[in-house]
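We modelled the chain as a single entity of 241 amino acids. Its sequence is:
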Amino acid sequence: MRTDSPISAALVSWGNAWLTGHAGLDDAVDALERSAGPQIVTDITGESPLRVFLAELRATGLSSFRLALPIPGDLLGLTGPPVFNGAALEAGQAVIAVLGARRFGLVPSPDRRGSSYSGIRWTVHDAHVADADVPQLADAERALSAAMRSATDALTSVDGPMQGFPALDHVDGALAPGYPGRAHRVGHLAARLALALRLAEERGLTSGQVAARREALKALDHAVRRARVAAHHAILEQLRA
């Protein structure tokens, strides 16, 4: 899946809103299915609708969801084991379900059957109990602002057929109810920039221009992924505070 695909982020956002009482289970699953179609979960026992799977998880102690947005060399949000890390890395994203002293990893993939059915299949993996080291929202917002300024300066200084970021007027980066206002702001900006990064890779530049651009985009991608993770964990920070 594309790393700017919002499906793992959406499950974390709506899942945490449900678990903290800001949305019902039906509201959460309906929102996910509106954005990406029908959703099923596959584990060692077989497959089940996402709605059923989540209800059963809550009955066994599900308390929160966490977001992972890894790339090669930066396994952001992951702590293992290698099988789960590898699957999440291939997808560019994953969700960690927290159940007391247990963790389950959920990795999405497109689920297409025939010419009309298009949805998401979540594959369950064992995940290590330790929480990943991820930034707090305030720190992530500052780093994102700094990286965005640096990248803008670098990109607009590169001559070529297209410079700077593309205009992105309509990007769905909204968080679910219950998240603090700062998280909504940071999450939306990070979602817009995640898409901008993908579009920037599609532009035609010379090899010299690509080299000048690469470092700026790499630094921005680092900040964007951390901002998205921090924004989606902010509801948990809010509860701890």
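As a brief sanity check on the tokenised model: The two ends are 35 Å apart (CA to CA). Residues 207-240 form the longest helix (34 residues).
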